[in-house]
């Protein structure tokens, strides 16, 4: 099905539209296959990511540039490309996803989808479809930049596209073929918005848009090229914190952390899972912004002596926020963990921050050690439920091992200090490579597997937690459990062939020009590799 001759050489416009629709279906199936299948060592495991289905979709589309001209509905093509970006991001193929996203945004710019004067001239149905598509591209652009450390493609100063409206599917279906514009249907739209009782994803998209705009401001303020060697001042930190707090007042309270001490943990029992998931995900995003604001200070190697109290305050804020993220993830019920991938990067980042600060300041262990260990165990068990990339799996196993070695000790946190020799022993005791270390190719032995999930016991004599969340102990019955595979040791650690091709996309081309060994080093702020490197440095320091 995915052979190159499956795509026809010459197609009419209608045929091309049909092929693009079919490609959308294959991409959705590929995503579903990836979600439902764990990364196991078998012939089935090699197809567990749905890559063959994605290849069939690409062949259906044909020439990636000509398809924009051949298809009569440009929005349909852009929607399909957006699905491709989401799928590639799911595989941690960020380098390839960036290229598809750049092509998609470029053509959206060409069509004028970033300008209100173009969008408002369309029919009301097409107007709404373009609004939703454009702002999804905007959110993906911001998310991709955070993961890769590369600049934004979309510049907010050039955008005035109206935001999506909470119009129901029934209303949109009714006016799908109506040529009237939104201005001509203003009374009907106002009536629908006033009387619509359906629960739709649009409030979540609206919250995501607001979050993405704030994220852009924070990124430009702290992580722009001219700020790489500068530390944010207390005044700047306060301004950015207020920016995050104020932005949440402009969205539905369901998607905010401004209530209940930072986390609205009371959700109605009749609320559907997808809605709860959206609310939890938005709260985690806002919390992650607080860490992003302060993370650059954590990674500083040289600090003036007179800033000791400010640094301690920053570390306390970061570890408390990281543990809030972990507690949000603990609300995910067992039957829903298979679809919890959107939480993964945030949970990995929060665990890295919390563990790193415990290593740096052992007194944090009493209050935050148990929940950090629980997070590391949850991450490793999560890998048994759904597909994760080879480099993510290696990073999670490495993180889990470090957490177990550091936190599973009978020594009291007040006396335990990780000396340089002990740290190097911990750091060298694992063969797991550093997260996203693209300078080291994957093992040629695809039979390399992950060790059994680490299930350490809590430290004996661990002091009682003193904070308000002392109930989050690892020895309590966790709210989330993970049934493992029949043979949990059969998770494939090495990259599959198609994963290796992602690295080969850019690695051979980059070396002659003197690029860094690790591509995330090209831009400050690529969080995964930066935080893992920071954690390793804490382990290896004297």
From TrEMBL:
GO molecular function: DNA binding; DNA-binding transcription factor activity; zinc ion binding
Keywords: DNA-binding, Metal-binding, Nucleus, Transcription, Transcription regulation
Name of the featured protein: Xylanolytic transcriptional activator regulatory domain-containing protein
GO terms under biological process: DNA-templated transcription
tRNA processing recorded as keyword: no
Domain Xylanolytic transcriptional activator regulatory: 97-170
Compartments where located: Nucleus
Domain of life: Eukaryota
Major place of residence: nucleus
Pfam family, one: Fungal_trans
GO annotation, cellular component aspect: nucleus
InterPro entries assigned to the protein according to its UniProt record, in alphabetical order: AtrR-like (IPR050987), XnlR_reg_dom (IPR007219)
């Amino acid at each position: 099905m995915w052979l190159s001759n499956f795509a026809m050489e010459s197609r009419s416009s209608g045929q091309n539209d049909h092929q693009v629709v079919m490609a959308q279906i294959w991409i959705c199936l590929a995503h579903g296959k990836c979600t439902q299948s764990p990364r196991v060592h078998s012939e089935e495991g090699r197809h567990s990511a749905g890559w063959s289905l994605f290849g069939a979709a690409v062949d259906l589309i044909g020439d990636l540039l000509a398809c924009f001209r051949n298809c009569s509905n440009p929005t349909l093509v852009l929607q399909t490309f957006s699905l491709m970006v989401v799928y590639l991001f799911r595989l941690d193929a960020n380098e390839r996803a960036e290229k598809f996203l750049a092509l998609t945004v470029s053509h959206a710019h060409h069509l004028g989808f970033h300008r209100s004067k173009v969008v408002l001239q369309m029919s009301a149905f097409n107007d709404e479809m373009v609004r939703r598509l454009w702002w999804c591209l905007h959110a993906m652009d911001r998310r991709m930049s955070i993961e890769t450390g590369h600049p934004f493609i979309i510049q907010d100063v050039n955008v005035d596209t109206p935001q999506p409206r909470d119009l129901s599917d029934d209303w949109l279906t009714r006016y799908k073929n109506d040529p009237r514009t939104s201005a001509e249907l203003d009374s009907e739209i106002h009536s629908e918005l006033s009387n619509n009782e359906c629960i739709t994803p649009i409030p979540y998209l609206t919250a995501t848009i607001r979050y993405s705009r704030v994220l852009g401001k924070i990124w430009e303020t702290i992580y722009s090229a001219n700020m790489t060697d500068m530390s944010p001042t207390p005044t700047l930190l306060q301004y950015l914190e207020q920016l995050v707090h104020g932005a949440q007042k402009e969205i539905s309270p369901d998607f905010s952390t401004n209530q209940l001490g930072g986390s609205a943990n009371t959700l109605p029992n009749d609320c559907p899972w997808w809605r709860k998931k959206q609310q939890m995900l938005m709260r985690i995003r806002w919390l992650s912004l607080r860490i992003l604001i302060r993370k650059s200070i954590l990674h500083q190697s040289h600090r003036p002596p007179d800033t000791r109290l400010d640094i301690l305050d920053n570390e306390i804020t970061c570890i408390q926020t990281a543990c809030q993220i972990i507690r949000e993830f603990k609300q995910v019920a067992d039957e829903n963990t298979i679809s919890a991938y959107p939480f993964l990067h945030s949970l990995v980042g929060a665990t890295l921050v919390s563990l790193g600060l415990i290593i740096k300041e052992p007194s944090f262990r009493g209050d935050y050690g148990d929940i950090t260990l629980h997070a590391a165990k949850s991450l490793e068990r999560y890998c048994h439920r759904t597909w994760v990339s080879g480099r993510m799996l290696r990073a999670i196993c490495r993180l889990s091992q470090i957490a177990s070695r550091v936190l599973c000790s009978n020594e009291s946190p007040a006396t335990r200090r990780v000396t340089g020799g002990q740290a190097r022993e911990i750091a060298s005791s694992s063969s797991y490579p550093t997260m996203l270390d693209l300078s080291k190719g994957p093992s040629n032995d695809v039979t390399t597997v992950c060790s059994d999930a680490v299930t350490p016991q809590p430290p004996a004599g661990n002091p009682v937690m003193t904070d308000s969340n002392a109930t989050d102990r690892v020895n309590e019955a966790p709210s989330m459990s993970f049934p493992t595979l029949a043979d949990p040791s059969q998770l494939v650690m090495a990259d599959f062939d198609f994963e290796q091709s992602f690295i080969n996309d850019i690695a051979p081309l980059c070396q002659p020009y003197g690029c860094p060994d690790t591509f995330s080093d090209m831009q400050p702020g690529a969080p995964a590799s930066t935080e893992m490197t920071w954690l390793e440095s804490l382990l290896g320091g004297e």
